[in-house]
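Chapter summary example.
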Amino acid sequence: MRYWGGFGAGFSASNYRVTTLEQRTFNVLDLLSSDKSRDLGSTGFRGDVSLGFDYVLDNLPNYPNWGGGPWTLGLQGTFGYTDNDRRTIGIPGSALFTPGGSGTDFVRLQTTWEGSIGPRLGTFFGTNNFVYVNDGLAFEEFKATINCGTGLCGQNAIPMTMLTESKLRTGTYYGGGFMMPLTRDWRIGFELRETEFGKWDVTKGNPALYQGKFEFDRLHDFSAMARLNYNFAMSNAR
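The structure predicted for these 238 residues follows.
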């Protein structure tokens, strides 16, 4: 058994989309214009701490002709921070009601704390190098902000307002990585990962003044991370 912990740092790229499902002003359901769907993709920093263990599977064959070693099955958990942040100018679907332009209106989506846990399968090759694949469950906090400012609200005699909603979303991830030794206990490497969070419907506001229902779809993250791990306990492992 090999127990380890470490740090990761890199970047995360998001691929989001926002659609206005409906808008109400003064309790009246308004029509939508053709610009009701917009992209919200962005890139940002991602950093985390990780813990895990790997158990050597003695009953699986290795490949000594390739310099291969034993297979391992383990568990990997991470907890970290990502600062993806993207806004689209104007409220999608409001063009019919903003003849003077979008003004200070915007829709914004941010991510903050995130984490994951799941199994990983790996094998050694060469001089104690290690490759692995992993998947599992992920969670991430999303924050949506809708600003009804000098565009939709200001041009329709509605009090200007900023609406916010935060939610911890769960999803799934899959990826893989490579680790190589620095010393007997320290390893350095690289990991790629994709994460899916589905879609998120947000309804905010006062229908007596302004209320919007929005769908944040394609909540998909891709990350590339450099990793530094330390083996703090080992037995029956390379």
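To summarize the output: The chain has a mean pLDDT of 90.
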